[in-house]
User: What shape does this take?
Amino acid sequence: MPIFPHTPRRLTAVLVAALAACAVAGCSTQSPPKHSERLQKASGLVTFQIDTTPGLWSKTSKQTAYAADDQKIDAKVTKLGSGLQRVELSGIGLANYLWQLDYHAH
Assistant: This one.
């Protein structure tokens, strides 16, 4: 008689629950629908402003070694009085930022 007779059933239940949670949460290695279209539209903008916390911007905009010169996120950051900061991006900078967010989401 096994020491833990219900372990295979529990393991199966945990695996099924994990797969179901992943499916419901939309876990996937694919970009969101129409992501390429959003990148093209973003690159056509003159400027785009984001008001965000310094920590969120710092965490999501880090440049990594894979980023080529044409993927730089050049941003003008201005501190706001409310503890937020305004990040101003060119259209190309916004497209590069969106691309980087998508890349790190997978």
